[in-house]
Amino acid sequence: MAQARRLDPASHSGGEASVYKAWERFARGEDDLRGVRPEIAISWHRCRDQYQVDPCLTEAPAAVAEVDHALEHDVVFAELGFRAASLAHEVSALGGIVTITDGTGRVLAQWGDEATRAVAAEANLAPWFCWAEGTTGTNGMGTALMSYTPVLIRGAEHWCQAFHDWTCAGVAVRDVVTREPVAALNISCWRSELPATVGAWLGNAATLTQRILRRRAKDDGAELMAVFNHTRSGSSAPLAAVDAAGRVVLADDTAGLLLGIPGSTPAPDPAVRWKPELPEFIRAAKYAAEQAAHHPGWAGSTQIFTRLAQEPTSISFRPVFLAGHLVGNIVSFGVATGDPLPRVGGDAPLRAQPHRMVATRENRMVLLRLPEVSFAQSEGNDVWLSTDQGRLRSASPGLDRLETELSASGFLRVHRQYVVNLSRIREVERRYKGELFLVMDDQAETMVPVSRRNTPAVRRALEI
């Protein structure tokens, strides 16, 4: 990596001064974000309005002593540690430090320049302390865990003023199946800039490390497929093989129809999973996985509403293990065996629903009432909202999260790239081969495609 440039803390370029002034305004409650990058503005919004992190915080809090994580995560930590340690000499020569955290933002290890490490220790940027965004504000590690790409946090872009002398770059390593963060790798410099090559190095390190998780996902998927085929040979019940996150590796034709996913055609890669458009099913599968992970002999059942039935259908879960590691469950439909699961619908307490959505337009946060939003569309790692105020970038980091937040507020996932406001559909167009397109009531009368697997849910929601 190229040599870092030392900065005089008493001087600020025009851009840095603009960011600092925006930070001052936003920290005291104003929403004027002129000169602030959109990804930083979104993070500040989370810190101030969602997490309520004190911008005057001077040190990170102690980390929670025990956090559950899978065995393969330990392998990821070891791999990241190897990569970080191998770079330690080069980073140290720049006056920088390399840090790794787990998926909750707990610092696990650190290498680099001893003088910088001493300064970092004063802010608890050290092992056994937590740098999650929700506890310590916008920072390289915590904000990386909220992002799908490497992040760079310069000076006053940090939410807490005490960290404004730092420049940090971080990247998250994510589970290839669930897309949940497993760890973060971060490089920090005090009162100096990071080299331009740091983003590419971090992205490459994360990609190489995630290969471990992809290999594990392939092995898990292959085992679930094998147990599925063995079970199907002795059972007439519709079956699905489901991972611990509630995603389907393989289902027969009947189970596929009930779940709204392809049936009987294995994915080309065992690491590829299908997400059922049935929140009840996913919650039940996650609960079943948690029970089986702690009690290997556990089996259970519950009832859910599927896509084709007017009455609830019984489903049973039987765990599948590989070398003592839970890889998922075989789900039988129309069968009720094992311990009853808690009710996942009906009597479950209702989660508070959002009254507004947050978006960004240039330098401002835009607060939207839900009826103002026609639909959301994903483009790469970004989510864009079609609204009465034009096309705006959503503060939500992914369409899956947005779908979860709005599922009980009249919004429906109709395509892998689209979540629509059902009340904003003006017309439904049916094409020659039966494909559906939704004509929205925006000024452009945008036509949103409906995927085949989501067509039954759309028909049911619109009663057509």
Automatic annotation (TrEMBL):
Keyword entries, A-Z: DNA-binding
One Gene Ontology molecular-function label: phosphorelay response regulator activity
Domain HTH LytTR-type span(s) in chain numbering: 357-464
Superkingdom to which the source organism belongs: Bacteria
Pfam family, any one: LytTR
Gene3D superfamilies in UniProt: 3.30.450.40, LytTr DNA-binding domain
Protein name: LytTR family transcriptional regulator DNA-binding domain-containing protein
Lineage summary: Bacteria, Bacillati, Actinomycetota, Actinomycetes, Pseudonocardiales
